[in-house]
Design brief:
The protein is of the alpha+beta class and 98 residues long. The chain has a domain at 13-76: 2-Layer Sandwich (Alpha-Beta Plaits), CATH 3.30.70. The chain has 1 helix and 4 strands, in the order E-E-E-H-E.
Length: 98
C-alpha cells in the first residue's frame, strides 16, 4: 500500500528538522513560520506542518543555503509528540544567531 492509497498526501504532515547551532526566532520567517526550539546539545529543531514534498524540499534548500549543518529530518505524528524531545512545546529565549 502506498502513502497515497493509505490516505496520506505526498509528504504532507508534521516534520522536525534538526540543525546544528542555535537559531533565534527571527529565523522562523525563513522557514515558512515553523516553530524553532533549542535542545540542550546546542541544536535547533525546526518543526511544524509541511504541506507536501515540494515544501519539505524547499525547507531543506533553505537549510542548505544558510549553510546550516543538517542533523536529522523526522516526520512526526501530529497528535503524538516525540517523548524523547525534551523541548517539545517549549520556546526558549534566543542566545545564538539572532
Amino acid at each position: 500500500m502506498t502513502d497515497t492509497s493509505a490516505g496520506h498526501g505526498h509528504g504532507a504532515g508534521r516534520y522536525e528538522i534538526r540543525v546544528k547551532g542555535r537559531l533565534g526566532p527571527r529565523w522562523a520567517t525563513r522557514f515558512d513560520g515553523l516553530t524553532l526550539t533549542h535542545d540542550g546539545d546546542g541544536s535547533t529543531v525546526i518543526h511544524g506542518p509541511v504541506a507536501d514534498q515540494a515544501a519539505l524540499h524547499g525547507l531543506l534548500a533553505s537549510v542548505r543555503d544558510l549553510g546550516l549543518p543538517l542533523l536529522s529530518v523526522t516526520q512526526v505524528e501530529p497528535d503524538h509528540p516525540r517523548p524523547d524531545h525534551p523541548t517539545h512545546g517549549k520556546e526558549r529565549s534566543p542566545d545564538g544567531l539572532d
